[in-house]
Task: structure prediction
Amino acid sequence: MCLAIPGKIVEIVDPANCIAKVEVGGVKRSVNIGMLDQETTRVGDYVLIHVGFAMSKVDEKEAAATLSMLKELGAYEEELDQFQNSIE
Result:
């Protein structure tokens, strides 16, 4: 299964190429944020990540609710493993 997983932007690594460091469950990975509005995307924003791309921004409450739902479905560990094992 492959779902979007919420994460928090902790650093804008390469603004010219739209790359940010995003944290999910204590794991940090580089993610492409090019699909988001570059004028309003900031460190501290929560985003939904799918296959290395931030698809949309969500608020902290929605991110927590999504993580909770993924855990209830039993999909959180699988998604976190995929995120953790993605190529940096």
